[in-house]
Design a protein that fits this description.
Elements lengths: L3 H8 L2 H9 L6 E4 L3 H15 L2 E6 L2 H12 L5 E4 L15 H15 L7 E6 L10 H7 L1 E4 L6 H10 L3 E2 L8 E5 L2 E4 L8 E6 L2 E8 L6 E5 L1 E4 L5 H10 L2 H4 L5 H10 L9 H4 L15 E5 L1 H28 L15 H8 L4 E5 L10 E3 L12 H13 L15
Parallel strand pairs: 1-14, 1-15, 2-4, 2-13, 3-4, 6-7, 13-14
Antiparallel strand pairs: 5-12, 7-8, 8-9, 9-10, 10-11
Helix pairs in contact: 1-3, 2-3, 3-4
């Protein structure tokens, strides 16, 4: 059963408005005693009253996968699970393409969100650490195409190459493209399906999604945003624009040769903080009106502290390596990991709520307990049910009654 109809009813419920009023208090509202389904319903009903963007921060990726289907079922136009990596940003180890492409898909959804749409994003605290190029820089490197545009195919081909796309004879995986006469097939890494551009002369006449296996055309779309295949092309492009004297001593001889001679760099990830003075987090891609829900804050802080300690040691080892090789380290700053307490403190600036069942709330003021209670009612005991409800009303409880109709298939 879809939760969308229930979420819609809750949006207009007086109790929802009461809870929403409590989000405006100085101390952040904490909701406790709710099941995960109830959390998804409540956060959706609250968020949609305030914003068209919801960000739910949970402690672990496992917990994120549990939240995701419930929030998706509540009727958001777009619901995204933002993937993150445990790899230290100062290591040369590459983040898997699946994670990078998943991140780009979410970022593309944010950038292309229409005024009549809304979006819910489920992510871990790792998404709040600096790991992305600045929004404007990524946006400037995206290729936006719309039906009716005049297209210079040579320029488009160069743009695709600069974004990391590889020309092939057949489109069967993300990050590839091909051309057959007036038809260009591209498989954007930020899309679930490849797209087919049909040209009439220099004019883009049609954009269609197609099945990469059967090659059969599917839905027509009006526009598309093609992101780079990863963040490395952006980092490399920015590094090449920096004065060579300022950064050449940061690289090994092999890295420097690779960067200058081939304009590629397999270890580009660890130079994100060199390319950009202030790398971004997922939060930097969302506006200040975003409704932020923090689930199990103390647990998230604990996970974040453990990761921060490991990454801090990784950074110190990297700096030590610079010293041993007589290389400058002034441009290699620790700007890819931030104290987790500072990050969580920053979340309090956003309108939203905390949810918890594990935290001691005895010293907290703004707490709303919606814990459920098991009743031993038998079917058709309507008199007993009504008396129980009457007792709750007399005790000043507010009652939500949700009915499910079960059907046999």
């Amino acid at each position: 059963m879809s939760l969308e109809s229930i979420a819609k009813k809750l949006e207009d419920h007086p109790l929802t408005n009461e809870i929403l009023d409590r989000t405006n208090r100085k101390e952040r509202l904490i909701i406790t005693g709710a099941s995960r389904t109830a959390k998804a319903l409540i956060t959706t009903s609250l968020a949609k009253q305030k914003s068209n963007k919801l960000l739910v921060i949970v402690p672990t990726l496992e917990e994120a996968t549990r939240w995701y289907p419930l929030v998706k079922d509540c009727g958001w136009t777009r619901t995204c699970l933002y993937p993150t990596s445990e790899v230290s940003p100062y290591d040369s180890i590459q983040v898997t393409s699946e994670i990078v492409w998943g991140q780009l898909q979410v970022l593309s959804d944010i950038l292309e969100l229409q005024s009549n749409e809304n979006i819910a994003i489920i992510a871990t605290e790792r998404s709040l650490q600096p790991h992305l190029p600045p929004l404007d820089y990524l946006k400037s490197k995206c290729i936006k195409l719309m039906v009716g545009d005049e297209i210079n195919t040579s320029n488009l081909a160069n743009q695709l190459i600069e974004c990391g796309y590889i020309k092939t004879s057949n489109i069967d995986q993300e990050g590839t493209w091909t051309r057959r006469g007036d038809i260009l097939d591209i498989y954007p890494v930020s899309s679930e399906l490849p797209i087919r551009l049909e040209l009439f002369g220099d004019q883009l006449e049609k954009i269609k999604e197609f099945d990469p296996i059967s090659q059969k055309s599917l839905d027509k779309i009006d526009n598309v945003c093609i992101t780079p295949t990863g963040f490395n092309p952006l980092i490399i492009d920015k590094l090449l624009s920096i004065n060579d004297k300022d950064i050449s001593n940061l690289f090994t001889d092999e890295e420097y040769s690779e960067l200058i001679n081939t304009k590629t760099l397999s270890s580009a990830k660890k130079y994100l903080g060199v390319a950009f003075e202030e790398p971004s987090s997922l939060l930097n891609y969302l506006d200040n009106e975003t409704f932020v829900v923090v689930d199990e804050r103390l647990q998230g802080i604990s996970h974040g502290n453990a990761w921060h300690k490991i990454v801090d040691e990784s950074y110190i080892e990297t700096i030590k390596g610079f010293s041993e090789n007589n290389k400058t380290k002034s441009n290699y700053k620790p700007n890819l990991h931030i104290e987790i307490n500072n990050i969580y403190e920053n979340l309090n600036k956003y309108n939203g709520i905390d949810t918890t069942d594990l935290e001691d709330l005895s010293s907290k003021i703004n707490v709303f307990n919606i814990s459920s209670k098991l009743h031993s009612w038998l079917p058709n005991q309507y008199g007993k049910i009504s008396l129980s409800i009457k007792d709750y009303i007399n005790e000043k409880y507010c009652i939500w009654i949700i009915l499910f109709k079960l059907e046999r298939i």
